Amino acid sequence: MSQPDDPPPPWWERGTVYQIYPRSFQDSDGDGVGDLAGIERRLDHVAALGVDAIWLSPIFPSPMADFGYDVADYCGIEPMFGDLAAFDRLLAAAHARGLRLLLDFVPNHSSDQHPWFQASRSSRTDPKRDWYIWRDPAPDGGPPNNWISDFGGSAWDYDAATGQYYLHAFLKQQPDLNWRNPALKAAMLDVMRFWFDRGVDGFRIDVLWHIVKAEGLPDNPANPYWRPGITERDRLIQQHSTDQPEAHAIAAEMRALADSYGERVLIGEIFLPNDRHARWYGTPERPQVHLPFNFQLIENAWDAVSLRRVIADYEASLPPHGWPNWVIGSHDAPRIAARVGAAQARVAAMLLLTLRGTPTLYQGDELGIAQVDIPPERVRDPQELRQPGIGIGRDRSRTPMPWDSSPHAGFSAVEPWLPLNPDWRTRNVAAQETDPRSMLALYRHLLALRRAQPALAIGDFALLDAAPDVLAYERRHGHTVLRVALNLSAEPRPLPFEGEVLLSTLEGGGGGVLRGDEGVVMR
Ligand code: TEU
Fold first, then answer.
1. CA atoms of 374 and 383, how far apart (whole Å)
2. Which is deepest, 87, 172, 182, 308, by most CB within 10 Å?
């Protein structure tokens, strides 16, 4: 039971994270792409929102085949974004506002332009050959096994110069690193030290469950549930290419390194069923990541029955030392407001910020940006370009932040690299700042309430009974009991309990009924 005199929880349990997609936050040098100086300029927006930490998607030198998730130098800054001095200024400016800064660590693969891979592919006897995963062709000359890239096609690319294939779980421009090689592992842990020494507060770790593959690289089994129209990756179950015990051991090493720097946080990107997901917390004696990212609000149907089941099952799956976390949007997922609609997006905001666990907000969701249709000639996402027409494009959630109604929404002096949301002239930060009914105002209220009420940030959690279409739960800390009721339907529903409304997603009300699409926090 959480009590007021408990020792204070670490910041990442009590706090909230805000994800910035650097290419699309603020351009300061007029190239149509965001940069670090731009982020620094807009930090007051982040601070005013009331979050505690920023996670930056990758800012390292990159040919941008996968928009930064193809890293050509783990210890530098992409010139398009700035340089190390600009990074240090941004870090200091964030810290000055009480904001922590997390970087995106991409350990599974580098860019094919990384000097390590250039050396590795130069000859079979190069000392860095084994830093990547090279294998002879199958007897018929084809790829060494049946593994499929997450972006479609074989996960192997043939290198004629040395007569072998190399493995890439994503694009062929993203060769997988070999974490079984001790020198590679040491070099990558040094990368984490480099940024910790510079003062970063932690990392979001990209595709952490991918980083080690089963010894012998056996074929993956077929997925009996696959059908056309689903991504090609899902033809196979990634049994041997992901979630290996050796990857858990490496996560524990990363954690020990992070802990040696004091209160730093590791958030692991991990897509797995609950039982396997929970193992990424490790044990109290040998912890792994602090927060294995929980994507279930993104992946599951938006109705009270499904949400109730998802929340209960996830809570039940957590080890006693495992702190939960939740997210409703990212640079990979469809916009929440596109998925559930404008009215329910407000309910989703309340859910995200009142559940037990660290919430991560995605830039632009605080404005309720919805579907942005990308004209075919402007599609940039390599995943969409390789598998068009099945609705997996990621550009639609990577469009620039609309700051005001000036040309290009105040994002840039020139046409941005991706189009703006079509309603940017009215749906922008400046317009919403002056509108008490705006999504931005709701997010600020929710974050302020969460800050003021330890019951919401760190209190105990219990689901409550309620009418159909209503999701209800309580949060309890010491003597404070707060109750949340969310109407997942557009019709009025009975309020499951009485009390004082601390915050509603709608204006007015108070008639003892939960209006359509209304969420309330009550005392
Ligand atoms: O995403 C990993 C991941 O699981 C994606 O394949 C995800 O399923 C897909 O993008 C959903 O549409 C991470 C990054 O978040 C993503 O941006 C990168 O492209 C990917 O890793 C490779 O680094």
1. 14
2. 87
